Amino acid sequence: MREGRHSFRSVPASVQLVAVLLILCGSLRSAEAAAYYSLNMNSQTTVSSPEVILQNGTAGTSTIYTNSTSAMVSVDALNWLAGWDNRVKITVNSSDIDEELLDFPVLVYLSNSSSGENDADVSFIFDELGNNRKKIAVTTSDATTQCYVEIERWDDSSEKAWLWVKIPNISNTTDTTLYLYYNKDKADNTAYIDDTASGNSTKVWDSNFKTVLHLNQSPSGLSDDIKDSTPYANHGTSEGSMNSTDLVDTVIGKGLEFDEIDDLIRVPNSTSLSFNKSSGTCELWINWANATDGDHQIVMASSNRFTPGANDGFEWASQGDGDHFFYPWGGDGNNYNLGPNPFTNGVWHHLAVTYLYTTREVEIYIDAVNMSFTTENVPTYWTQLANASDWLWGGNPDRPTRYFDGIFDEIRIHSETKSDAWIKASYESGRDDLADFGSEERNMEDSVDNNTSDVGSPNDIGTHSNFTAQQYGPDSICDTLTEEDTLGSWGNYSSELLVNPGAEFGNTTGWTATGPNTADFAAGYDCPSGSAGPHIGSYAFYWNSPSSSSDWAYQEADLSPWLSEIQSGDAQILAKGWLVCSEYHDPPWDIVRMRVVFYDNSSLEISSDTYDTGELGNLTAWTEFGIENYTMPTNAVKMRMWFQTYESGWDAGNADDFTVKVRVFRNYELDLEVQWTEVDFSEENEELCIYGGAMDAENLRVDVRNGSTWETLFNDLSSGWNNISVSSYLTSSNFTIRFKGGNETGDTAQDSWNIDAALLHIWTTDAMTHDYVLRINNTDTDSWQIRLKEASDSAIERLQNCTICFHNSSDGTSNQIVIESGGYAQDVGPWYDLGSFQTIYIAMTVGAKSTGTSYVRTYLEIRVPGTTVSLQYVILFRIT
Fold this sequence. Notes:
Low-confidence stretches: 1-47, 304-311, 380-386, 500-507, 523-541, 575-589, 618-622, 648-658
Radius of gyration: 44 Å
Largest sheet: 9 strands, antiparallel
Distance between the termini: 19 Å
């Protein structure tokens, strides 16, 4: 799972499967034999070949070679138009089509209650798009070849839309499939989609359509206010008293109501509308207010309407008291009629008339039923239609008593005689009874959208270099995740400095005393035998009854050997000391106070802190005390460690075996959370897909927040796509993961990793299932075990999914090789029993996101149960 990205779902593919018995590879071409041998050069075995043969499947075209251990199988896979998140399948049932139709415009009606033959609710399209009507695409059955679409009307407030889609081929033997894609985040698809009489919408109507008037514009009386959808631009102009109130709801969106007084639509003469000794078809939807009352003109086209013998007229009308309907104008005063007006008042009917000049054939269809009008009624001198004349719909100023009373919709003029099957399909489509809608299908690629998440503790640790790079790609522009130095425990450090080195620490060597009573600072005091507490050397330092808290002793350390470490990170101070009791006091209440002062290279004091350990008591073991987790300034050059020991009341204090250590600590950690919000979590398939760039030596772990705990999804991300199902975790609209370093304790090396994209891939559609592409037949009484194991691959990143499995009638299905979003979710299958004389089927589902060729080579391993000895065959899946 969201062009040019990770793992995108469902794409066309034909799959070739080649199974080759390696021990027979000599029968192959030499180049092939070398390739197959190289895959198995370490798979030597002394076992004889089991009696297993490969046989034809039922899906696609199979070829089994003479040794029955090699095969080639070709199948097709499902497509998905790359970059589109949502779609719905539309089916034109072949049972509704009487003959193959080419370049046929089908009505696609969208509504929240009654779309198509199955009265579907497709309100989910409006939920996604609102009024973004051009963010759609319609494809043929391959799911990637786009069709031209005209938007006649889009009413998102009432959740209704009328689209006309040009379908290259509609079969009368197999159902025809369309896919309507929609995605609010896409740019307007104006290469294929547009409003009436705009842009590429005119391509819906092939060159035989001379005029298509949807009559969905409000009449204004201005020139060309009634738009023609064809490339010929034979627009009409409303006349009479027509105005916006005459735009009314009809069987297909909106139409125009005529008042029987002066309303008409005039389509001016044009070369494209002059059918000289030719053929044609006219059709429209019509609703009569009163079909039996007086004369009503539907259309007239003639330049000599009152000239006897002018033989160039064409007219549809009812005349008198409805006792005549339809006649071609012949100028002789005769009516060549169908008989009484067949229409029902207030009911919508589809009317079509076809005419063929050469044979004087005229056919009239009402609701796709041929009314059997006979050619003998057509005058011999009717030689031409509408030569140098306007087409007048609904009325004629020269015949003011013949204006139409009722509603028109969807007027079309063709320059060819349409067949019965075409007219039937046009009628069924116009009443929205030709297409069936499926359920909404999702194929979403939702980029991570929040890098400030901190749902778990501790707070985020580490840095992003370019977080937006996680939201797009992969495109080789990465977000670099870098560990942060969080300091370690006392045991984790990278360098150590002894401030008072030496075998005997219990003396005043190197120490300088300050204060009013520095003379009381004794050196070389010999701890008498039998004194309380162990000690290392024979000397101690002490104050003999210091009288002031200003008495201190210090030792200075040069930090220059550690400057590079200090300045590149953090340092801490650790003081270790052993305090013994006073010779004359039992128990002693010795108190130690320490202070650290740092100086820069100008010997200026830059920081100081005092640490008071309190009364330590009678210590009998080495004790760490004093300064803990103190951060050393990065510009420190020298350090002084000040020391003061005394007893309560400033009596004499003693200290033995005292040393000070400076340690530079490192502990690099990464704990960066990222989050998706407002995720669609109701779909059946949900994957986390992370594309890794350059990976450092340390593992990069990915955890998912599951309620109040973290659970690991990936122990170590690798370069390329990393894909895993998260359906069990994605249970709410928020989804949170974290990137975590693999070594989070005592890590003295700072690592960084590149992430090129982090996506949630969510979909509902399944790839096309092929059951079965091949079968394995055991012709022996012995039982075997079989499995598939990935050997090598190329270009599998284009595969949205590919599952290869075993199954039979009794033991269920065993998934063997599973590819999800361009990467392996499973590259070796579990062992599957192949009993004596048993047949096992190899089935597969496959879909891809783009065209190309992918190869998945697998071993078919066959072994004796309970042993580790097996034979390996190779099956090569070639997916294009």
